[in-house]
């Protein structure tokens, strides 16, 4: 092949890089430096998140599971017969079982997840556990889902978005997501939304900065991932995990704070960190009942029921279209 035929290599562009490396370069070029928390979940990060959900300080998963078990008979009644349950970001579909056990009227289940392996494993397990359920997995980004598959049962469409994942979205993204979900599910649909509630900042901070250091490892794993997948040379020991409560924005923020001045290389680009400078890796928004109601209404839903569990409390909100 003649040298002249070789495609010109643009030194600035990142089009030739994987999406994660592109996002990392974009995030490190921004000021302040920031990344979307969706990049936490490589294989190691997903395992670390599973460990987080079992920590004594991390109450959201436990509290939501208990609340869901308590209110699922009421949710089942609202869903009625021949319902279609559509779960956004279904992962291992673990919480779904609590709902399915209480709701024999659900005739079809549509899990949506970006991880095709997680989706397939979950579909196999759910089909085995509920042989009469029509399981129709959809691979893709739950923030931008495709249309529902054809030929679904005729009952109520019910969106399911537990785990307070909506807290990762900024207010405008969250509104757009709920509005798109309403358009996808249609007139007469329902939506079950799980959110974490504002509470004593000490309880919140402990949940995101546990004494065993699992959340720190989860946060720092982003740098290990960068080294493996984005040809970066981060020294993870040159950063430390920080969780802080931003009262104005009602959110927990996670950061990776540089312990000293340093230069990091990512796929041939160099980025400077000053001592104390952070890479902002996650927002986890916390709601009040009024705030989540206003969010849902701004997206065209109305609140039919709002269930608040015991402290440390989370909420499940039943929305109607
Ligand atoms: C999976 C987004 C709900 O915000 O609590 C846990 C992720 N980050 N510990 C959360 C997380 C640090 C979690 N969500």
Structure description:
The chain has 321 residues and is an alpha/beta fold. Helix content is 35%, strand content 25%. The protein has nine helices and 14 strands. It has helices at residues 19-29, 43-52, 60-79, 94-102, 116-129, 171-185, 201-208, 214-229, 289-298; strands at residues 33-34, 83-88, 106-113, 134-135, 138-139, 157-161, 190-196, 239-246, 251-258, 262-266, 269-273, 278-285, 302-308, 314-320. Strands 2, 3, 4, 5, 6, 7, 13 and 14 form an eight-stranded mixed beta sheet that branches. A four-stranded mixed beta sheet has the order 1-12-9-8. Helix 5 (116-129) links the parallel strand 3 and strand 4 (134-135). The model is unreliable at 1-6 (pLDDT under 50). Bound molecules: N,N,N-trimethyl-histidine. The site of N,N,N-trimethyl-histidine has 11 residues, from strand 12.
Radius of gyration of CA atoms, rounded to a whole number: 21 Å
Helical content (DSSP H or I, runs of 4+) = 25-40%
Approximately what portion of the residues adopt beta-strand conformation? 15-25%
- Poorly predicted regions: 1-6
Q: Oligomer, anyone?
A: single chain
Specify the biggest β-sheet: 8 strands, mixed
Annotation field: number of helices: 9
- Kindly state the number of beta strands: 14
Distance between the termini: 60 Å
Secondary-structure blueprint of this entry?
Layout: H1 19-29, E1 33-34, H2 43-52, H3 60-79, E2 83-88, H4 94-102, E3 106-113, H5 116-129, E4 134-135, E5 138-139, E6 157-161, H6 171-185, E7 190-196, H7 201-208, H8 214-229, E8 239-246, E9 251-258, E10 262-266, E11 269-273, E12 278-285, H9 289-298, E13 302-308, E14 314-320
Residues 52, 60, 163-165, 167-168, 208, 215, 282, 284 line the site of N,N,N-trimethyl-histidine.
């Amino acid at each position: 092949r003649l040298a002249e035929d070789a495609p010109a290599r643009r030194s600035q562009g990142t089009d030739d890089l994987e999406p994660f490396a592109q996002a990392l370069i974009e995030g490190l070029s921004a000021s302040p430096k920031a990344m979307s928390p969706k990049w936490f979940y490589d294989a190691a990060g997903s395992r670390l998140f599973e460990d987080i959900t079992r920590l004594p300080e991390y109450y959201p998963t436990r509290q939501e599971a208990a609340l869901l078990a308590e209110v699922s008979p009421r949710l089942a009644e609202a869903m009625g017969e021949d319902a279609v349950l559509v779960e956004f970001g279904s992962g291992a579909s673990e919480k779904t079982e609590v709902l399915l056990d209480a709701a024999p009227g659900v005739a079809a289940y549509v899990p949506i997840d970006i991880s095709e392996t997680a989706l397939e494993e979950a579909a196999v397990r759910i089909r085995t556990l509920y042989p009469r359920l029509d399981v129709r997995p959809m691979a893709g980004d739950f923030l931008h889902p495709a249309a529902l598959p054809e030929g679904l049962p005729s009952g109520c469409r019910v969106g399911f978005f537990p785990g307070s994942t909506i807290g990762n979205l900024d207010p405008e993204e969250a509104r757009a997501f709920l509005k798109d979900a309403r358009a996808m599910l249609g007139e007469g649909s329902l939506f079950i939304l799980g959110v974490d509630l504002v509470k004593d900042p000490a309880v919140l901070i402990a949940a995101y900065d546990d004494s065993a250091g699992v959340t720190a490892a989860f946060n720092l794993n982003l740098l290990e991932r960068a080294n493996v997948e984005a040809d970066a040379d981060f020294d993870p020991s040159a950063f430390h995990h920080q969780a802080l409560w931003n009262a104005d924005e009602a959110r927990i923020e996670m950061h990776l704070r540089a312990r000293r001045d340093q230069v990091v290389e990512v796929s041939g680009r160099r980025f400077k960190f000053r001592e104390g400078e952070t890479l902002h890796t996650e927002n986890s928004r916390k709601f009040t009942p009024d705030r989540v109601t206003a969010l849902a209404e701004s997206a065209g839903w109305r609140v039919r029921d709002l269930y608040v569990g015991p402290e440390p409390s989370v909420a499940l909100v039943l929305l109607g279209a």
